[in-house]
Structures are given as structure tokens and as C-alpha cells.
Amino acid sequence: MATLELILVLGPPGCGKTTVAKEILADFQRNRKTIDRLNRDEIGGSIANIATLADLNLSKGRSVLADNTYPTCESRAAIIAAGKKWGAQITVYALQRTKEQCQFLAARRMFQKLGRLISTSEIKNLEGDDPGVFPPVVQSVYFKRYEAPTLDAGIDLIHEKHLSVMGTGGAAIISGSPIVLGTDYVNKALILDYDGTLRQTKSGEKYPRTPDDVEILPGRLKKLSEYREKGYMLLGASNQSGVSKGTLSNDDAIACFERTNKLLDIFIHYKFCPHVAGPPQCYCRKPMPGMGVELIETFKLDPSQCIMVGDMTTDMTFAARCGFKGVRANEFFNA
Asked: ω before 211 within 30° of 0 (cis)?
């Protein structure tokens, strides 16, 4: 008689639990064993409801695979109790990724699914209908609350699975671990901040509010032209929280970017985040990786061949979270 099993796959939001769960299901099928997957994204309900369904399936002699965040001992207690009640072998796969890796993957999944990075309000509107779309704070809360599973909680086996996906193709090296994107991610790019990196203002303001206030910093065109000749795409990534504050409109921001490109006399395809500054509420405001993810996906970039140039620490953190090399603007343009 086959051993009755309860398998829990747990880990932070966006870490790849579904992929691991499908691998386990495929392994059961290869060995001609059956197991029922219980996943809130597919069947809805709460963690308590999943525990109730697991209890019902186990009572019928059916093994269960449940994949969810399960961050705390309390969140896992009911389903583990159901497994013990019916004498199931209880195995936990505790998936290990850093918060930075999960941020990258969550932004990538959003872009691949929706074709764009959505605003804070749109995330809130979709959150209940699409469990795969959630704000960055969900990941932060997970990492603050996480309690590692232990054998004294009634678990028989614990596998700490460090998700380092190896393979061929472009790879984003984030927190020292490669996330392989695919064989078609081959292009290289110079990714540029704008304010304080390419331009300053005539007025002395932190950023321009009108095109007439844009002034190009010295030596920029020569260096950009050199990299374009080396085969680098020229791309931009800029925070523009003034849009959310109402100090400039979305159209004003675009007009200032267009004026910058015209004064440089070189084309740069740019992205900008218009959302509010402060604790991250969207994936696109640097140092969050969203704009980088969007550029990677749009232009099939190999992050290991890309250079991010900026004047702020947030630019360097953004580079690290995208797998880019980060270089300070003064160092880059004066080299």
C-alpha cells in the first residue's frame, strides 16, 4: 500500500512555488502515484479552508500537496495537524530566495502577464481577483514574519531548497544567484538615469518642470556615442515622483525627456516611474527593479552585459536588483 503523504511547498510570494509544485506532481506521475494539489490561487478560499480540504482528502486515503506562503508556525499548524491525524508522512519544501530575487520575479511575472507594470491603485484593484498580482509590501511582510519550519512541529522531513536556476541564455545575477531568463536574452545596453546623470536644470531645481529648463551635462554625447558604436542600446530609467505630487504633469515629464534627447542629439528609449516617493508601493520606482525588468523583457537584454549609470545610491541598488553592473555617473563620464 502506498504511503499517505502530505507535502507542503512554502516560500515568499513570487519565489517560484508553482514551478516546484509542478515538478513534484510530475515526479508522482512518473512513479504512477497520485497526489491532489491544493492551491489557493486555483481553488480560492483561506489557509484554514485548505487545511479543511486536506483533512478531507487525507481521510479518504489521498495524498495532498499544498503550496502556499505558510510564513509562520501558526499558519502551518492546522494542515500539519490534519496530516498527523491521518498518519501521513509530512514533508516540507522550504523554498529559499532573497527578497531582491522575489521582487525581480514578481515584476517580471506582472509584465509577462499584463504587458506592463501597473500602478499602485491598479494593483489594489486586481489583488483580490488575481493572487499573482500583489504590492511589494506583501513580500516585505513575509520576510519580517517568516519562521523556519522545524521537525519538532510534527514534520517528518524538511528540504531547504535554494532556488538557483542554472542553464543557458541571459542571466540576471541577483544576490549572488543566477535567474536564467532564456536563450533569446542576448542584447546589451547602457541604461541611464536622467536627472543628475545626463542633465541638470538652468533654474537650479532638482528636476526640470518645463523643456526650457533642461541643460545637458558636459561630455555626455561623446561617451554615449562611444557605447552606441560598441553595439550597446541606449535606454533610460528615471524616477519622476513630481508627477504624483502634481508639480509637473505626465505630458510635462515626457516633454522634458524629449527635449533632453534632442539636446543630446541621440535617441534614448526611456521609461519613467510617475509614482509617489517613500516606501515602495510599486515595482517601477527605483530602487525597485520594475523598470529594469520592463527593459529586459522589451529588448531581450542579457543583464550580465548591461551597465546602469546613475548619480544616486538608489541607481546602484536598482542595478544590483536587475543584475546590471552599476557605475556612478561622475566615474563613467570622466573615465
From this structure: no
Residue 168 has what pLDDT? Answer: 47
State residue 163's pLDDT score.
67
Amino acid at 184: D
Q: Residue 167 has what pLDDT?
A: 42
Sketch out the chain's domains with CATH numbers: 5-163 (3.40.50.300), 189-334 (3.40.50.1000)
E-assigned strand segments in the chain: 5-10, 36-38, 64-68, 89-96, 157-162, 170-174, 177-182, 189-192, 199-201, 214-216, 233-239, 269-273, 307-310, 325-328
Contacts of 103 (CB under 8 A, 6+ apart): 14, 136, 139, 283, 288, 289, 321
DSSP 219-263: THHHHHHHHHHTT-EEEEEEE-THHHHTSS-HHHHHHHHHHHHHH
CA-to-CA dists, residue 59 to 38, 42, 56, 75, 312, angstroms: 15, 22, 5, 21, 58
Q: What is the pLDDT of residues 51-60, one digit of tens each?
A: 999 999 999 9
Residue in the block written with cell 520575479: 105
Of 127, 123, 98, whose CA–CA distance to 283 is shortest?
Answer: 123
The CA radius of gyration of the chain, in Å to the nearest whole number, is 24
Instruction: Kindly report, residue by residue over 54-99, the tens digit of the pLDDT.
Output: 999 999 999 999 999 999 999 999 999 999 999 999 999 999 999 9
Q: What residues in the chain have per-residue pLDDT under 70? A: 1-2, 127-129, 131, 163-169
Task: Write out the catalytic residue numbers.
Answer: 193, 195
Select from 260, 190, 188, 262 the least CA-distant residue to 225: 190
Q: Contact 80/9 with Cβ under 8 angstroms? A: no
191 touches 206 (CB < 8 A):
no
Residues in the chain: 335
C-alpha cell at 331: 566615474
Report the distance separating Cα 118 and Cα 166, nearest Å. Answer: 30
Residues facing residue 189 across a β-bridge: 233
What pLDDT does 128 receive?
60
